[in-house]
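Can anyone check this?
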Amino acid sequence: MGTLWNEKRSIVLTRVCTALLMAGCAVMMALGVPVSRFFIDKGMIAVEGAAALPLCLGMGYLCGAAALAMLYLMWRFLGRLQRDEVFTRENVTALRRISWCCAAGALFSLLTGVILIHEFLYVALAAGFMTLIIRIVKNAFEKAVLMKDELDYTV
């Protein structure tokens, strides 16, 4: 009898969480106007007047687009892992793109934090840190792909 938890179930759980985050992100983007108005009405943003709503919406949509792109790339990456396609050039490319999405999210969050809602500076810091972690993993995958290719040709 096997263990209750295994690698396949872990990937499935991660894919479910990724799908839920994608859905949540899409809902937040669909509700962009009411969410922005909530922040404006509560006096939670640093900009006042006619520019407040377009700025809040614009920054929210930029952050949301980066998040959705990253989550989609993660979904596809996890699908390849599920099919036991681990050390492939596609995964290296996916990790590179995921890191760029994190970097874009960090930049957009930094701008949002400076211009609108100062708490977004924490999001920018976390996204920047995640960018570094993903780049390290990408570099490790890239080396592993090179080693795998060398071994495949050494028979």
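Reply from J.R.: I decoded it. Residues 22 and 68 are 6 Å apart (CA to CA).
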